[in-house]
Design goal:
This protein is an alpha+beta fold and 351 residues long. The protein has ten helices and ten strands. The longest helix is centred in the N-terminal third of the chain and has 21 residues. Keywords: Signal.
């Protein structure tokens, strides 16, 4: 699709979208007018990213209901606006000249990130999931006058799964995801209310919530990835956590759904501490079980997808140096039999 770049292919898919520079799928790169259009046509790596994005968007909207297609088209228009702002010096679309090398690389990253997000829109175990996204770009006032700055624009991105169905099961899940996402990042509430200027303009932020597992018919587990980078910092900060939605109860997982007994927190803490010694002893920077007590009893740290044992997720810095990443421990389920709740099997296997 060398002549029909994503900007214009999207215009065909979106219909009469007046916010798009060109509304014709027959666009010839010889007719490119803006720096953004020229970059798509002229930068080889961006052209390849563009072709991937065209396929990803077409596939992501395939098989959706009309209402969900409309939502995704609206999000695609919002992303196209964001892409034209996120890689400039002032968070405004470039109207003349051309993108510098760094700007072109930035565009490639944005296009590929959008493709990766769209590729989460798919069928999983008979359920059609699609994505809801939020984007914003705003100038960093602390960097705007620094000609050598690499961080003149703050970017905000959020990607959430939604179920494409009009029933109570889907509505409960979709509401749960939106509510939990809003608790994880201010991006959604700010963008939703049109208060983009109130976002922190000195950092980049992203939130990605992806379906990890459908546990039978009664549990949907989501993996939550966050990233935050303060402009000029030595490195960014990131995290991995989990959301577990119980479809029959129409709520998130509670600790008592998995464990029971007056001392379950102590038993789980001690088991996690022992496993840390076994799996990560030479890297640990914590000194006693009390250092992890509050962490390991939080269901957002639990990955239930391992048949062998409970996987507990730690974040960078919590138990080891940043360079060691975000370690996990896996506690064999049989070591936790003494604190097993009556509902644990139902939650784990989803019946």
């Amino acid at each position: 699709m060398s002549a029909n770049r994503i900007l214009f292919a999207a215009a065909l898919l979106l219909g009469s979208a007046t916010s798009l520079p060109v509304a014709a799928a027959s666009f010839d790169c010889a007719a490119a007018n803006t720096p953004f259009e020229h970059a798509i046509c002229d930068v080889g790596e961006l052209s390849a990213a563009d072709e991937r994005l065209a396929k990803s968007f077409a596939t992501a909207t395939g098989g959706l209901t009309k209402e969900s297609v409309v939502l995704m088209r609206g999000d695609q228009r919002a992303w196209l606006d964001y892409a034209q702002r996120a890689c400039t010096d002032d968070a405004e679309p470039l109207t003349r000249g051309s993108y510098p090398e760094a700007g072109g690389s930035c565009l490639v990253e944005k296009f590929n990130a959008r493709s990766s997000a769209l590729e989460q829109s798919r069928m999983i175990d008979g359920h059609r999931f699609f994505i809801k996204t939020f984007y914003a770009a705003l100038p960093d006032p602390n960097e705007v006058d620094n000609p050598d700055s690499y961080w003149k624009v703050a970017s905000y991105e959020a990607v959430l799964p939604q179920l494409d169905a009009d029933d109570a099961w889907a509505k409960g899940f979709n509401r749960f995801v939106l509510d939990e996402a809003a608790r994880n990042t201010e991006t959604i509430s700010m963008i939703g209310a049109g208060n983009i200027a109130d976002l922190d303009a000195s950092s980049d932020n992203s939130l990605n919530i992806e379906v990890k597992e459908l546990g039978g018919t009664s549990r949907i587990t989501l993996e939550v990835g966050t990233y935050w980078y303060g402009h000029g910092a030595a490195h960014g900060n990131w995290s991995i956590s989990y959301l577990h939605y119980l479809t029959k109860e129409e709520r998130g997982l509670r600790a008592e759904d998995v464990f029971a007994g007056d001392d379950w927190q102590v038993v789980l803490r001690d088991a996690a501490w022992a496993q840390l010694q076994t799996e990560h002893s030479e890297w640990l920077q914590v000194e006693s079980p009390d250092d992890i007590a509050e962490l390991v009893v939080n269901p957002s740290r639990w990955d239930l997808s391992n048949d062998y044992g409970l996987v507990i997720q730690f974040q960078p810095y919590e138990v080891s140096a940043y360079a060691y990443g975000a370690p996990t421990v896996t506690i064999p389920w049989e070591k936790l039999d003494a604190i097993k709740a009556e509902t644990q099997d139902q939650v784990r296997w989803g019946y």
